[in-house]
């Protein structure tokens, strides 16, 4: 099957900008970083969040997308600001930007990390947690499907999605220059709007 999505289109645009021929390999998310480390791929693009831990072993391009984080909550129990999170049980998906943000920015919050956001929303509906932190696009989707829930923008993520490279990769400068050209021309924004809606 043909690989589609924001990451694939962006990779194809960078390939064109660099004037290089790329071979795309479809891998499970968990395999990408291992493949970079063993040298079987040159770059990884798959909504990879830049973290301090990952920076120890990999180089990253400039971020091509920064997430807006929104809190989903029951209409009768609003959680509309960071200040209200202390002492609350907040669910998020394990290993995501949201989990990192909560650990760094919400002291006193009981963080409940779950395998996926659907589980987290079910926990909220059952009253086991008081809020679920997701990206703003997912927040809209969940509240559309569940009229008893609503959401509020909480913060812009501290980190973004970037292209992962092997440590010391010579491609970093070239990829950053290509991203800059795509940003300046407005192409990157159009791509984000196409795949993610109009909010950035």
UniProtKB/TrEMBL annotation:
Residues 1-199 form the Solute-binding protein family 3/N-terminal domain. Keywords: Signal. The keyword Signal applies. Residues 2-198 form the Ionotropic glutamate receptor C-terminal domain. GO terms for cellular component: membrane. SMART domains: PBPb (SM00062), PBPe (SM00079). It comes from the Eukaryota. It holds the Pfam family SBP_bac_3. One of its GO terms (molecular function) is ligand-gated monoatomic ion channel activity. This is Cystine-binding periplasmic protein. It comes from Stylophora pistillata.
């Amino acid at each position: 099957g043909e690989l589609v999505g924001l990451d694939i289109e962006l990779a194809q645009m960078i390939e064109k900008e660099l004037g290089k021929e790329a071979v795309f390999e479809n891998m499970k998310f968990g395999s990408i970083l291992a493949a970079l480390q063993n040298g079987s791929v040159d770059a990884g693009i798959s909504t990879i969040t830049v973290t301090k831990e990952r920076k120890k072993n990999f180089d990253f391009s400039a971020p091509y997308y920064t997430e807006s984080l929104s809190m989903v909550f029951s209409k009768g129990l609003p959680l509309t600001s960071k200040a209200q999170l202390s002492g609350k049980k907040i669910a998020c998906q394990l290993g995501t930007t949201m989990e990192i943000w909560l650990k760094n920015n919400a002291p006193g919050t009981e963080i409940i990390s779950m395998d996926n956001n659907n589980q987290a929303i079910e926990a909220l509906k059952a009253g086991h947690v008081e809020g679920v932190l997701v990206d703003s696009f997912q927040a809209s989707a969940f509240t559309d499907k569940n009229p008893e829930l609503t959401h509020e923008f909480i913060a812009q993520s501290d980190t973004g999605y970037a292209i992962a490279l092997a440590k010391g990769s010579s491609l970093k400068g070239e990829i950053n220059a290509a991203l800059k050209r795509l940003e300046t021309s407005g192409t990157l924004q159009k791509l984000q709007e196409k795949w993610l809606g109009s909010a950035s």
